[in-house]
Structures are given as structure tokens and as C-alpha cells.
Amino acid sequence: MLKTIGIDELEPGMYVDSIARQTGKIKIRSQGRVSSQTMIHKLKEQGILALVIDAGKQLPAEPIPVEHYSSEPASVSRLSGKRVSFDAEIERAKALYAQGKALQKKLFNGVKRGLPLDLAIPAEFSNKLVESLDRHPDALLCLTRIRQKDSYLLEHSLNVSILLAHFAKQLGLPSHQVSELTLAGFLHDIGKIQIADAILHKPGRLTDEEMQIMRGHVSEGVQALEMTGLPGDLIRTVAEHHERLDGGGYPKGVGSEDISLYGRMVAIVDTYDAITADRCYKAGQPAQTAHKILLKASPREYDQVLVQKFIRCMGIYPVGSLVRLSNSQVAMVCEQCEDNPLKPRVKVFFSLKANHYLPPRDIALSESDNSLKIDQAVTAGELGLDFNRFFDQAIAV
């Protein structure tokens, strides 16, 4: 739906179709979305007075303007492809992650109400996820580990999207395939909104009848996406995310020769995120547990080569996971060390001996003069820590 607005009404997230009124002769090269307040200021400076926007393509507003968190405007780093520091990207990534959850909720509600899906918005949002990973992958990867028990349905698809993008980039896939996989991950569980909450969130084992209903979410999702004009390869990816190489998956029970590369990849990432997620009825498991489960089920259910490559790209201690150090302090993994994967860069924040939080402190475990080492991976739940709150207040600032 096209609508003419004044420049003072323009907000980040709006989709500009054309210029309606101006004092100069500037021309917009192509239609596009307004990414930041910085872009709006530039349009004002160049004499733009009114614009035609497409209200149907507007993204949910970002909770916090991204330029508040970096000395460099978002548009500059995106256009230049410049890599920024973790600290420069983390707040921007937080705003993007919150935006993704809001968009997921909007999509789920639309499917629930039987409304047609406009995939232009999630497609562009998926590209924004890839851009953040380009600027600094560890920021968004870190956020996939900061879970809310009551937001699993929204967070899971978003996390699968982020992890798939990272996996695809590490495999060296072309940029258009990275974008396709990111979007497929974002949409892969859209059919779950049609499953009754009593089944979707049941704390115990599902009955055979309930399991049959649960498995129907794949077909529900495929049916919803088929009406959008989404490319067939991406619909196939959604259709295959629960298929297994031995034919024991669903909904069709196809074997290895009939499962695509995308389908093999999304199956691995979907399982990994489900195992590590906190839910209302179970605590998430450490990444190392997920790795072991995937390896044990390979090559029977999962592509063994891809599982090994996925574990390698995530790291033995994935970014955002918690570890106990040899001095009885707890730290969050911030960055991998390619030369020594057992000694990543960490941020110490809690003392188990003193049983209290510490001022966050970065430590590069790989430095030669550092005698600290990781004793084991841990979870916030088993330690009784409210890590999400502490992360927001003291780490991601």
C-alpha cells in the first residue's frame, strides 16, 4: 500500500518507493528500506521534503536505533563491508535479534489467521542478518545462546537462520546460497503455529497420536509457503528439515539420495539448536552434548562430513557458551582461537568460590603467559545463574 509522507514522518524500517517532493534534484537509484536515522538526516540535508512509502513492506521498528551503539553508522560499515569489533557490533546485533523475534511473531500470527504471507520483508531481514555476520559473526552467534524459556518458538527459527548463515559462509557457499539458506532457516518452522499449544509445549513424551499431529507442522509450513511464490529449492529445504538419511525421518521418509544439501544442513542445525535450547519443560544442554549426539547419529541419520564441518565452524566451545575455568571462575566464550580451539578468548564474570558476580574481564586463554585453562563447559541453569540479565546489564553494553 503506497502512502505519501513528509520527511519528518520517515522512520527506520520504512520502505521508500519514490520521492514525492524535494528542493534539489537528487534521485534515488532504486527502491529500498531506510536503515537508520543517519540515512534520514542525509535525505533531509539533500532537500527531500516528502516521499512515497510502501506501508506493506515496513519492518517492525528496531527497539533501539543502531547508530547509538557504534561510532560508525550502520550504512557505512554495510556498504564498505568493513569488519568491526565485537563491542561495536553487539548492541546492533541485539536490536536486530529483537527485531527478528518481532517479525517472527508477525509471520506466525499471519499464518494463524490465514493471511497471505509477504516474504519481501523476511527476505530483506535475512540479508541484514548476513550483513551483521559479515561485520562480526560472534555478536549474533553469541545471542543465539541467550535464551528465554517462553520464547522458544520465536527464537528457534531465528537461531537456525543465524547458524545456517554462519555454516554456509564457513563452507564457502556463494553469497546467494548463503542468503537462501538464511531465509529458509527463518521460515523452516512456520507451520508450528498451527499445532495446539498443549502438544507443542507438552512437558512429557508425546503419544503416538500427538506425535502424528506434531509432525504435521512440516506440511502446514510447506502449504503456507507454496502460496507465496517462494523458490522451489527453499520450499524443499523447509520440507526436508526433519528427513533423515536412513529414511527414518518425516514427513515423507525419503532416503539420503533424495535429500538435498540444504536439507542435510538444516537438519543438523535444527537439531543442534533444539538440544541446546532452554524450554519451559527442560534445560538446554551444553553444545558439547549436542555435538556428541550429532556425531553418534552420523552417518546413519545425518551427513557425517557436514556434521564434522559444522562442529568445526562452531568451535569446541561455541561463542556465547559458558565455561568453568581452572581457577573456579565462570566465563562466557567471546571469540574462537583458530590456532588453539581449546583456548578461546573469554569474558570472566562469576566466582564460584566467592559465589558472586565479578566485573567482566576479557582473557585470551591462548596467550603464552596465561596458565588458565577450561575445566569444563557449563550452563547457567546448572549453576543457578541469571546469566541473561547479567549479559544485558554488564556484558552487552
Runs with pLDDT <50, length 5+? 60-81
Structural class category: alpha+beta
Strand and helix order: EEEHEHHHHHHHHHHHHEEEEEHH
CATH superfamily of the largest domain: Hypothetical protein af1432
Mean pLDDT: 85
The percent range for strand residues is 5-15%
The proportion of residues forming helix, as a percent range, comes to 40-55%
Distance separating the two termini:
38 Å
What do we call the CATH topology of the largest domain? Hypothetical protein af1432
Q: Provide the domain count.
A: 3
Radius of gyration: 22 Å
| Sheet with most strands | 5 strands, antiparallel
Shape: globular
Please name the CATH architecture of the largest domain.
Orthogonal Bundle
CATH domain class name of the largest domain: Mainly Alpha
Task: Give me the count of strands.
Answer: 9
* Tally of helical runs: 15
Taking strands numbered 1, 2, ... along the chain, how are they ordered across the largest sheet?
A: 8-7-6-5-9
Pfam family, one: HD_5
Protein name: HD-GYP domain-containing protein
Domain HD-GYP: 131-326
GO molecular function: phosphoric diester hydrolase activity
